[in-house]
Amino acid sequence: MQPIYRIAPSILSANFARLGDEVTSVLEAGADMIHFDVMDNHYVPNLTIGPLVCEAIRPLTKAVIDVHLMVKPVDRIVPDFAKAGANIISFHPEGSEHVDRTLSLIREQGCKAGLVFNPATPLDWLDDVMDKVDLILIMSVNPGFGGQTFIPRALAKLADARQRIDRAREAGGGEILLEIDGGVKIDNIAEIARAGADTFVAGSAIFGSGDYRATIASMRSALQTVAARR
């Protein structure tokens, strides 16, 4: 089965003085979804954006808004983002007192649920919750800041996660997206796809380029070389 690849620009790297225009422009340039990084200056050493910003950009597009919560505790903020228009809400297991319960809470709010793994976080958290996960996000940098360099050992973790997803599907499970976040660029996106990712968060590589359309097109061209070999 040919993979469906999705490119999700992270608005953490966008120009916040004109955020609405940035969201519209990057989607018109060919992006599939919007990645929304939420940091609380507690779980990670940075402070970014909250539900009000999500609510403000929701009317601008019907595209998926993929909210990545780098917060602790996590449960309190989930309903606010669901109400603000998030389609996917993912969180770090370290940010939850009860991972199974938080995944269920996200789904109860009408969103798809994701679990996020830092470079040092083992995938063992998935052992008992694969039936409640719609997205697995592998961090290929340590969370907290944009513009970091890709950590190569994330490739092995991606391959492991892909095997878990494939086994779950063979056992009758539903679709689970495998997302990568951190240091994704034109020159490494194909290698990342070969390791098993199907959804690619890119911030500075897109928003820091002079031409969003050309950058996204180049990423898709690289991904097509991977799809053609499968």
Overall shape:
globular
* Sheet/helix structural class: alpha/beta
Largest sheet: 8 strands, parallel
CATH topology: TIM Barrel
The largest beta-sheet arranges its strands as 1-8-7-6-5-4-3-2
CATH class call: Alpha Beta
Number of strands: 8
Number of helices: 8
Portion in strands: 15-25%
The helix fraction, in percent, is: 25-40%
CATH H level: which superfamily? Aldolase class I
Mean pLDDT: 95
- Rg to the nearest angstrom? 16 Å
Describe it for me?
This protein has 230 residues and is of the alpha/beta class. It has one domain (6-227): TIM Barrel (Alpha-Beta Barrel). It is built from eight helices and eight strands; from the N terminus they run βαβαβαβαββαβαβαα. The chain has helices at residues 19-28, 51-57, 78-84, 99-108, 154-170, 189-195, 204-207, 212-227, and strands at residues 6-9, 33-39, 64-70, 88-91, 112-117, 135-139, 177-181, 199-202. An eight-stranded parallel beta sheet has the order 1-8-7-6-5-4-3-2. α3 links the parallel β3 (64-70) and β4. α2 (51-57) packs parallel to α3 and α6 packs parallel to α8.
